[in-house]
Design brief:
The structure is a homodimer of 219-residue chains. Chain A is of the alpha+beta class. Chain A is built from ten helices and seven strands.
Chain lengths: 219, 219
DNA sequence: CCGCATCCGCGTTGATACTG
DNA sequence: CAGTATCAACGCGGATGCGG
């Protein structure tokens, strides 16, 4: 029953005491995309047990990271959502996610869900660079297609085509991650056959600014 | 024997598969301050068992995050140090450490070691803001005193006074963390009695730029 | 003393069954 | 749908031992 603590007066140790246990950060990740029901979370975390999810949620609630809300409108039920502190945490773990994304090898036998990519896009979104930008980017990734809708300072990742996209990028997730982090240039990605770009090159350049580390121009 | 994996094609899940297990990130934190011996790490991680530390180190080695080096010079023995990838990771976990530092309550029964504070300072250091800066800041924190030596683009955190400091800040760690993150202004910290500042106010302003989120001026 | 392996008791986790 | 109850399996903490 006693929660194990590192008992160190150190920011990292404290963070790990709070959210370092198994599944916790993945729950925060899922909640970062919006309110979720218990069963939504359960479906998004294959392998977690219901009791553990229940306990984790209660703990996040106790720590003021997430909030339990009795939903009314769509269908009565319980919904979990992040608090402001939870959103701070979601921001703080983005670099870790980016670091991990760069190490997503192609050979990993891992499930690919649109939500994970949506989370990665949200994490790498730079609102300041998106001022005055109104674009729609289509990403096709191994059977998963999704759309990033940039409107000024906001990014919405949709799983249905919201409007005619300014470009379509067909690639795989590791390549997309490398593009976003600037580890390879769009030119290289296309030249090596790992990516295919169709559409407005200027929109592609804006996408790099808004969703990546910016700078380079697409082929 | 089978390492448990989340098996999700998501950057965060991958990062947690690699370094999400207990103690692992704290080991990386310790190594981020420089090469360490097995027993140094052991001493800095009260509660870890020798076998677990050994296994974690081997895993970090396998993943190319840390490296095992047979030391010669000071005394023969084995030393562990971060690889470039490990340094990337250390960078990536800094925001998490900052998030946790803001939640280091005064009531926590936790050990305070100069190294943790040194790590926090390193994590918040912005080399770009330190161009042309040559300062020495003294921090006195509940019995622990240390010095931050800024020289152009580099920060060295010392546990012995390297030279006459440009200012001395006496406070506690939560307040220091809040100052660094900009959650309170130096003015407030001093006015509320939580901090005491003695020395060159302009050096204090530079410290905020270099070690914090910058902007405000000290009282 | 340093670096590490082995063993054991226990807390945490994963899977299933069951309930309002 | 939103959990609680239960139990087996695994990971971890602590002790011990052993070759440099």
């Amino acid at each position: 029953m006693s929660r194990r603590s590192y008992a160190q007066y150190c920011g990292l140790a404290r963070a790990l005491d709070l959210v370092g246990e198994r599944w916790t950060l993945l729950i925060v990740r899922d909640l970062a995309l919006g309110p979720r029901r218990f069963t939504d979370l359960l479906a998004g975390l294959p392998g977690i047990g219901t009791s553990l999810l229940s306990e984790r949620l209660r703990h996040l609630e106790d720590q003021g990271i997430a909030r339990r809300v009795v939903a009314r409108r769509p269908a009565s039920g319980v919904v979990y959502e992040l608090t402001d502190e939870g959103r701070d945490l979601a921001q703080a773990m983005s670099p870790l996610a980016t670091w991990g994304a760069a190490r997503l090898d192609a050979d990993v036998e891992a499930e690919l869900r649109p939500e994970w990519v949506a989370y990665a896009l949200q994490a790498s979104f730079r609102p300041a660079a998106a001022a005055g930008v109104h674009d729609c980017y289509e990403f096709r990734l191994e059977g998963v297609t999704l759309w990033a809708l940039v409107d000024d300072g906001t990014l919405t990742v949709a799983q249905r085509r919201p409007r005619r996209p300014d470009f379509t990028l067909t690639t795989d997730v590791p390549t997309l991650a490398q593009l976003g982090s600037g580890r390879i240039s769009p030119r290289e990605a296309v030249a090596s056959g790992r990516a295919r770009f169709r559409g407005d090159p200027e929109a592609g350049a804006r996408a790099l600014q808004v969703l990546g580390s910016g700078g380079d121009r697409p082929a």
